[in-house]
Amino acid sequence: MKPLNKVIVNKDTSFNPIWIMRQAGRYLPEFREIRKDNPNFINLCLNDDLSSEITLQPLKRFDLDAAIIFSDILILPYGLGQKVEFEKNFGPKLGELNLNEIAKIDEIDFVKKIHRVYKAITKVSLDPVLGNKNTIGFVGAPWTILVYMINQQSPKKNLKKDFFKDKFLINKILLIIEKFLKVHIKNQIESGADVIQIFDSWAGLLDEKDLPNYIYSPTLNLVNYVKSLNVPVICFPREIKNYKEFCDIVKPDAVSIDYNVDPKKILKDINIPIQGGLDPKILLTDKDTLKKEASKYLDIFKDHPYIFNLGHGVLPETDLNMFEYLIKTVKNY
Ligand code: 1CP
After folding, report:
1. Does residue 86 line the site of ligand 1, with CB under 6 A?
2. Phi, psi dihedrals of residue 308, rounded to the nearest 5°
């Protein structure tokens, strides 16, 4: 059995597998080397030779228990024909959203545009470097994808003032997003992904009253869909106002927590396997602090099925020695 399945499916508490969000990325010099020659980020995701190589880069260096496929949640709007670009020091920039155009896209057009992501997954899952480790496929949750498609840029800077104005458009787009997320999930699984993570990075932007409509209901549909394909599903509803209610309603196989979640409280509140939590900024301190903070999570979750990870992606300025020390700390615990 693969490491994440032991914890998620068998509820094994005798060990803690580890993988790190954004483990394939900018903190690695060998990634920056490839990125330098590939200024178009989407094209890099769609180059299956390079994206499978990037996916495996962290596993060649470190004793990680899973590979997460090098792609992006915004490959979905790209597959739907919306323009998606990544600008240096700005982040994603999306083109105008045209409902009539998007409504015309069918499954064949969509898969044709992004099928090289699936080819990369197959390459990774068959590579000897992977061995018996997991291949994690992923999608953005419907709400987070909606945010980028309507807002056309990161909501970190600001959510458009009239974001919720056109309810008709929002509801139409949400249905289209849900339909194609299922297509994307199915194809990733058929290509070799053996765990699916759903990233809801902007769940924290919503008031509690809006959670049922924009988060619980569409995410529950996706979770049930992944379960019907017999693959474990992990949800990461980052900074959501109510993790307990989310887990009670959506019932993912495991939940990934952000660094603002109190690990002792969540342990009391929910009984599904837990992942993550440690603040990525702790990796920018020193080894003693890192060991102390990582051990805090390992101690609290010692009798609970727990996958070690961070509370958000690893920061680009992270020192490789600290990254390696974290993995050793978890493995030697
Ligand atoms: O070199 C570069 O500048 C590219 C940086 C980069 C990378 C390495 C982006 C741009 N995306 C990725 C890869 C990526 N994105 C992965 C690959 C696998 C891995 O984890 O190693 C994954 C899983 C994602 C998921 C993703 N993309 C999320 C969800 C997780 C999260 O960070 O909250 C989100 C919100 C995105 C959008 C996105 N893509 C890239 C950036 C800089 C952003 C965030 C922009 C923002 O703040 O709104």
Report:
1. yes
2. -75, 135
314: domain range?
A: 3-331
Whether the model pTM is above 0.90? yes
Ligand 1 atom closest to 31 (CA): 1
Task: Answer yes or no: is pLDDT of 9 > 80.
Answer: yes
The residues near 3 (Cβ < 8 Å, ≥ 6 apart) are 15, 17, 65, 66, 132, 133, 134
φ, ψ of residue 67 in degrees (nearest 5): -105, 135
Q: How far is the CA of 16 from the centre of ligand 1 (A)?
A: 25
Q: Are 139 and 76 in contact (CB under 8 A)?
A: yes
Atom of ligand 1 nearest to the CA of 32: 1
CATH number for the domain that contains residue 108:
3.20.20.210
Cβ of 24 less than 6 Å from ligand 1: yes
DSSP 264: H
205 lines ligand 1 (CB under 6 A): no
3-state secondary structure of 261: coil
Is the model's pLDDT at 282 over the cut of 90? Answer: yes
- Kindly report, residue by residue over 181-200, the tens digit of the pLDDT: 999 999 999 999 999 999 99
List of residues 6+ apart from 315 with CB closer than 8 A: 27, 280, 281, 283, 284
Residue 157 pLDDT > 90, yes or no? no
Spatial separation of the C-alpha atoms in residues 228 and 221, rounded to whole Å: 11
Among 194, 200, 320, smallest CA distance to 256 is for: 200
Cα–Cα dist 18/233, whole Å = 16
Half-sphere exposure of 290 (CA within 13 A, CB side): 21
Residue 130: strand pairing partners: none
In the chain, how many domains are there? Answer: 1
Does the Cβ of 94 fall within 6 Å of ligand 1? no
